[in-house]
# Entry
Amino acid sequence: MKFAKNILCIGAGYVGGPTMAVIAFKCPDCKVTVVDVNEERIRRWNSDDLPIFEPGLLDVVRSARGRNLFFSNAIAEGIRAADIIFVSVNTPTKTFGYGAGMASDLQYWEKTAHEIVANSDRSKIIVEKSTLPVRSAEAMERILQENKRGIHFEVVSNPEFLSEGSAVMDLLEPDRVLIGSRQTESGRKAAQEIAAIFAHWVAAEKIITANLWSAELSKLVANAFLAQRISSINAVSALCEKTDADVAEISFAVGSDTRIGPRFLNASIGFGGSCFKKDILNLVYICRSYGLNEVADYWEAVIEINEYQQERFVRKIIREMFNTIVGKKIVLLGFAFKANTGDTRESPGIHVARKLLEERVLLVVSDPQALENARKDLAGLDGSVEYEPDPYRAAVDAQAIAVITEWEFFKKLDFAKIFASMRKPAFVFDGRNILDHQKLFSIGFNVFPLGKPSLTHFK
Ligand code: NAD
Ligand code: UGA
# Structure
């Protein structure tokens, strides 16, 4: 079959895989190929055991795979055949040299630029899908323009706003699609071509065009704003614990103001995930590199509060369990950085587990999707860790439960049964405020929610 467009995506990760699957599903007139250097990942994309867990993803992949959706390791071949190339490789925080711990590590992204130049024999549109520092497109353009064959590459920015755990729904019904381009004739034309792909299923008013730099920077700013809301409510949760105010009541009261809105105001043990911290650090680094130190300090505080909140949670566990937890069995209910995903990157669970192990607890981790990753994250740490998918089995002889992830099914557990199997006094530290605290208290637990009065049986 002859396709209207050949679309390639370099990088078959959390973004490249689902995004291209949805594009293929919604655009049967386009051939969509996703390539990656990682052979195992591609093998799994070609099976029903997908490399990432996302509700609804397997159905979307199955409906298009083999029809107009293909996963492959043949990168050079993919580049040659493509009209449009999305670059969706990882851009982690740099761990070495200048900017270590702050700046983006752009080596994978730059490598794709060289691969594109080396394997192209005609003009193409290159789409930045990865999250990048503002003005990255300029560097991409410079590398691409080095070709001596007169080929024109138009670089556009199309940052991705999907959230893990709801990636498919976010892609099917996005709040907006943002496309940034040079404000030239060819730049605008390229932006229109990318817009035409999304127009297969996204309403025209939700497809926003902007200049290249605004699009790149909007992505970093969107993540910084979201994370800032979480740090704001988490900072308030600490004050609530000192004053017997209830952080959930405050979220509701404050979020009812339509100017503020109710979302992203749930107090937690801190935000995790591969991007918030990385993108804010990157924003901070960029600000500092322009000498905007006050602006950098402002955004850096969002991360500092996040670290404070994780630390506060561990200290509370130690303090409330009589300042010694050596040899006590403690269950982490959840390990993923949020519900509905197996992803544990930057999960607060990693920090909590590490600190508890330093205190020599007997740790049990229970999570419906994240145990495979948890094992990798905690490998090599000294101490005793068990991995038990069944929360009932995990809790036997435990002295405390700490809720790390807001999995819906944790709310429905039979806590009377769990309490009966635990050592006494039994504790619950609810790092997500998802459980029925009054009920747990009446069962016999000593309950420590976040940003709410604790409920204990101690006189
Ligand atoms: P990921 O690590 O899951 O996937 C990146 C993939 O790129 C890997 O499979 C890797 O093997 C591949 N890759 C690296 N270099 C390559 C090369 N030269 N050729 C071919 N393949 C190569 O990363 P991700 O979570 O999908 O994130 C990708 C980008 O999207 C990042 O910039 C991230 O900040 C951004 N982003 C991520 C999310 C998210 O929810 N994870 C959401 C929005 C934006
Ligand atoms: C986030 C953004 O929401 C996406 O728009 C963005 O595309 C993505 O980062 C990215 O650039 O990678 P994600 O990290 O997948 O998505 O998940 P979120 O739902 O934003 O949650 C991030 C963290 O904040 C989780 O640990 C979550 O539990 C926590 N959170 C979220 C809270 O603690 N409280 C809240 O009220 C909301």
